[in-house]
Each structure stands twice: as C-alpha cells, then as structure tokens.
Amino acid sequence: MCYKSNIAEWQFASDITDENERLKLEQSLVAARFEKEAWKNITSFNWQPFTDPDLKRKFKLLSVLGPSALPEDKLTQYRKSIDAMEKIYSTAKICSFANPGDCGMNLDPEITEKMSKSRNFDELKHVWQQWHEQSGGKMRHHYEKFVQLSNEAAQMNNFSDTGAYWLRNYESDTFKEDIEGLWQTIKPFYLQLHAYVRAKLRAHYGEDKVPKDQPIPAHLLGNMWAQSWGNIDDLVTPYPGKSSIDVTPEMLKQGYTPKKMFEMSEEFFTSMGLLPTPPEFWSGSIIEKLVGKEMVCHASAWDFCNGKDFRIKQCTKVNMEDFIVVHHEMGHIQYFLQYKNLPLVYREGANSGFHEAVGDSLALSVQTTKHLKEIGLLDKSTPTDHEATINYLLATALDKIAFFPFAYIMDKWRWDVFDGSVTSADYNCHWWKLREEYQGIRSPVTRSEVDFDPGAKYHIAANVEYIRYFVSFVIQFQFYKSLCVTAGQYDPHNPSQPLHECDFYRNKEAGAKLGAMLAMGSSRPWPEAMRAVTGQDRMDANAFREYFKPLEVWLIAKNKELGEPVGWNSGGLNCQKNPPPTSTTQHPPPVTQPVGPKSGGPTVFLPHGAWILVAFYSLLNLVV
Ligand code: KAW
Ligand code: ZN
User: Fold this and answer.
1) 523-574 tens-digit pLDDT
2) Fold held by 159-569
3) Considering only CA atoms, which residue is closest to atom 10 of ligand 1?
4) Catalytic residue from among 9, 133, 329, 348
C-alpha cells in the first residue's frame, strides 16, 4: 500500500496533469480505507498497560491515524485543497520586468535566479510582488478550507488542533518552550547580523530605500522569502577581494553536471563507510527539470518502502547552493538506506528534525575550505588567515543564522492559525506582524487581506511542517561537532584546530557513529538517538555558538565601530485589512472585482463607481 501510494504521488509530482491528480486522489482513498482498518485493529487492543517497551512503542505510534480519520467526502475535500495549492504553487508564472511580454517566468529557475542575482531595486520588487500575487494570492480560499478540515481530522485523532497533532512527533511536553529558549539564545547574534547586513544594503541601495533603524525591505536579501541570505554575500562580504567560498564559477568552469554533483555527494557518504545508493536510485531519480512538463520542482527525497526503490526529485542547477541541497537530499536517502530493514512503523527519523539534519551535517564538512581544496574546487593557495575566516563564517552565517527566525515563524504562524487565535480575516497581516517582529523585514509593497503571502512559500502550500528545519539547524551543529571530535578533527582546547575547519571526509569512525544512529530509525525516543552520536540528550545551541564565535566577536565590534543601531523600530505594519486601491499597479481592478474577506459570506461585486468609495475608505483606513 505504501509503495502504491508513493508511486501515485510521484507520478503527480513529476507530471502535473488532471489525470495524475485524479489517480493520486483515488489511491489515497484506497490507502485511507486500509489505514482505517489497521487502526481499528490496533486500537481494539488495550495496549497502554503493555510491559514490553518495544511492543508498546509500536502500538503507540500506530494508534494515531492522521487525516484518514475523516469521512471519505471530507478526506476528498482535504486532499483536493492541498493538491490544488501545490499545483498553483508549482505552475505559477510571472512576466519579466525587462521584457513585459515574456510571461513564462517560473520560480525554478528564472525567478529564483533573478532574486539571487539582480541588484536592481525595482526589478526585485516587481518579481517579488508578481510571485506573491500568482502563488499565494491564488490560494487563500483553498487554505481556509484546508485549515478547517485539517483541524477536524486532528480532533478526530484526539488532538486539540493540527498544531498539537504535529508536535506529537517530537515526543516532548516542553517542545515549544525549548524552541523559544533556543531562539532567545540565537537572537542576539541574529540582531548583530541583521544590523550589519542592513548597513551594507544601505550603502548599496541608499538611505531612502534601506532606512537606518527600520526593518529591511524583504526583497533585497537574495531569496524570495528572505530565509537565507547567502546569495548577497558579494554585497556584504567583510573583506572584498579576499577569498570567497562561492565555488559556482569553478563548478561551471570544470563542466560540472547535476549527475556529477550527485556522484560526488554519494562518494562523500561512502568515503565515511556509509551506504551506497542502489541502481534503482540512479534509474528512478529525476535530477533535472523535465522539459515540456509541469512538475513540482521543490526538492524531495522518496522512500518507496520496498527496500530497493529510493529516489530524489530535484530541478538541480549547477551552483554551490544546489550542491549543498544535493547533500541535504542525499542525507534523507542515507537515512532511508540505514533503516530499510526495520519494521515499517520505525522507518522514520528519530524526529523530523533529525531527517533534515543528516545531509546538512555532512555539508558543513564538504563546504570547508580544506575540503573544497581537496576536491579541486578551490585553489590550494587560498589563505585561511583571520580575514578569510571572517569572510567564510559570515557567508555561512548568511545561510544558517538568518534562517532561524524564518523557520520559527513559518510554524508560529500556523500554530496560531490552527488553534484559532488568528482567523482568516487576519491571516496576512498576522504573517507580516511575525515577519517584522522576528525577522526584522518589511514587505516592499503594502499588503492586505486580499493577499495571502504565507502561501508563496512551498511548505505552506504543500502542507509540510517547518519547525523541523529549526530543529535541524540547531542539531546539525551538535552532530557536526561530535563527528569532528570522533574524527580527531576538532579539539576545543586547541585554537589551531577550530570547529569550522573540520572535515571528516574518509573518516570511518565518524561514519560508523552516524550510521548507528540512523539505523535506529524512530525505534527509540529521539534523545536516545541523539545520545548515540553526541552523548547529549537535548537540543543545544552551544555547538552552534562555538562554531561562529569568532564572527560574533567581529560583528559586535564592527557594528559598534560603524555606529550601527541594532534592532529596528516599527513604523507601523505595512499591511491593512482592506486592499489599498493602488496596491496592484499591474492589474487595475476590473469592473466587477470581488471585495471584502473571501471567506464566509457572499462575494460582493461592485459597480465601477463604487471603487471610488472603496478607495476613499481605504485611504481613511490608512490615515487612521
Ligand atoms: C534548507 C535546507 C538545507 C539546506 C539549505 C536550505 N535552505 C532552506 C532550507 C529549508 C527548506 C527550504 O527550502 O525552505 N529545505 C527544503 O525544503 C528541502 C526539501 C526537503 O528535503 O526538506 C523535502 C521537503 C518536502 C517534504 C515533504 C514533501 C515534499 C517536500 N523533504 C523531504 O524530501 C523529506 C524526505 C524524507 C523525510 C522527510 C522529508
Ligand atoms: Zn529535507
């Protein structure tokens, strides 16, 4: 059943057609019937008093049914709303800024490339606004329906709402408090990075575009969601002209291909004595965007549950960023391979954050100057003095530290939506409230409740929980540090061997340690799995602080020297309930444009003249 469902899902994700959508839905209903039967069987046992801990754990994990608890008509609605959003997200297109007649720009690769490379304020703003309009903007009503049904399913599983249902995966009563505690530890460092980056952006774009003590405009950070900022490294690098770790030009020069990137990643895993991928992986995976087909380009790794068929689907581009993503996806595959002989119920990560952290822990080793030299992507004479170190750590921080507040609010927003503290009347403005409060960024154009900006991010559209990445970005440094100590590559008491220079390539001891943890799957509570690698049994930001220590010291001094304010003032949220009359310059409201909240109540169509009134009240709203 697991195999059949995966095949149907893969078919849809790699070839988005109405027929494949129908087949996927049909299969999901068959699977739901089966899961319901299994669940009835399991829950007919009084398993709570069982004394065999392993048997009890299996029963505990199997006793939660998930969305399949819904009656068939509602399950159909539920699936259809998610499929519709994923389809909107994956097929959205926008028009070019320079070439308005060219309206075939996809997120992957054209839009992503523009966000990463363009330094033209207005072009970035255009691309940002159009993407948000064409993706999230088209799915608000689907999301409303989805929230209602998803909560209904959670409640049928005896959870208060979907947020509580998600948290079961972390098997902790203090999970939310733990995450908040970690954020508080990271926050001072984030604020320093934010202040420094804002200063550099102000120098480039001017004080009028990037005011000194305000949130940063969300479209200037090299990434559509301002979630990782590595792509603007050239604008913010502390010592220009010194070495850069972006080896993209070298990869292109050497004629790298997606296939070569995957082969190299596999070789890194096997060099540590970890498992090779089977032939099915290479014949079944899709590692380049298919021409002539609509597909889900957001990367993913698939376990077809038959012990043989494991695949990756990724629209890989030849650049450093995707080289890291390749390792990330290969980390998922390694986990699959390691636990493939466990009972199906245990073929999962110790928790979702563990699954996300495997490839990233290795990628920290891959991206070291030492390793890049070894694989011929960096010149052997590249220095590793203090200035080069700061450049390196800052480039890494742009991806790793900038990410935390984003990863946090992705699920903070959904927790608030699922538990009802935020309703659809406030979906978008609440999103921007969190964006401003945690990330210190602001929308480049006024937003309203006609927009639905959370839906412009894949994991909201496709309903993938996100706090896993927050967990991952903390624990990957714990794993990295422990593997480095095991490999004799890091000694906390030896300054000539700092953590960020550790490369455990070819180290079999480190590989054995990691492999042993992965082979546990979800058979034990995650603190036990963590202990197998780190000796610790909790999430801890200290390894992370240790890694970045020289940069933290440097940033604090630099911001002081520049007289740069740390933090931001809120000059009022750039979001209002009603749409401002001039919010969309591209598409002026047609004669019969629906207004008002899209959920509930009837849609109101206004005659042309009434727009003047709407405009007046919107303006009034703005003034008030
Ligand atoms: C990130 C992660 C690593 C390196 C750089 C990064 N930059 C940003 C991130 C976080 C996040 C993002 O893009 O926002 N990364 C991803 O989404 C990578 C895709 C994935 O490998 O995590 C993928 C997401 C997914 C989940 C469910 C359905 C479809 C896509 N996750 C998996 O494929 C997966 C596989 C096995 C178990 C669990 C998840
Ligand atoms: Zn992943």
Assistant:
1) 999 999 999 999 999 999 999 999 999 999 999 999 999 999 999 998 789 9
2) Neurolysin; domain 3 (1.10.1370)
3) 469
4) 329
